[in-house]
Design a protein that fits this description.
This protein has about 150 residues and is an alpha+beta fold. It has helices at about 40-50, 80-95, 115-120, 125; strands at about 20-25, 55-65, 65-75, 105, 140. Strands 4-1-3-2-5 form a five-stranded antiparallel beta sheet, with helices on both faces.
């Protein structure tokens, strides 16, 4: 399968500083539903929670069968969004998970409410028809203050 070039990033944007909140989508190679395997989905959740204790502020996540959504912000001045995504992919590579090159990110604007975006992310399984409304998706979550937040 061929992929378009690396997704365009905002020119001059500080992708290497703490502060901005990103909605990141990371896709499996050839859109294979690798995370339909509960053990792999749980490994992705565990990795996100681990990074959420050290390198990122994790606000919300959703592990879909063929991609991952993460709402997060960097914590460390020496880190960058690209480096974090590469390390996350490399860590899951230990489980033979292969990802498409690159990733997609959306930088939250001031007018976008963190809690609204978080609820959108965890609602992905409902919109995809993977679960009924009101049922919890085992591989999605809203973290901490974001749960009650600003929406």
């Amino acid at each position: 399968m061929s992929f378009p070039g690396r997704p365009r990033r905002l020119e001059g944007f500080p992708y290497d500083r703490p502060g901005p909140v990103f909605h990141v989508r990371i896709g499996c190679l050839d859109r294979k539903p690798l995370f339909s395997n509960p053990k792999l989905a749980q490994a992705a959740v565990d990795a996100l929670r681990f990074y959420g204790q050290s390198r990122i502020n994790l606000f919300a996540y959703c592990i879909m069968p063929d991609h991952i959504h993460v709402l997060m912000a960097l914590r460390q001045e020496q880190d960058s969004l690209g480096r974090w995504v590469a390390d996350f992919k490399r860590w899951l590579g230990k489980f033979d998970v292969q990802f498409q090159p690159g990733f997609f990110e959306h930088v939250l604007r001031k007018q976008e409410k963190l809690a609204v975006v978080a609820r959108y992310i965890v609602g992905n399984p409902i919109r995809a028809g993977l679960m009924a409304p009101g049922k919890p998706w085992p591989w999605a979550g809203i973290m901490g203050d974001c749960e009650q937040g600003d929406g």
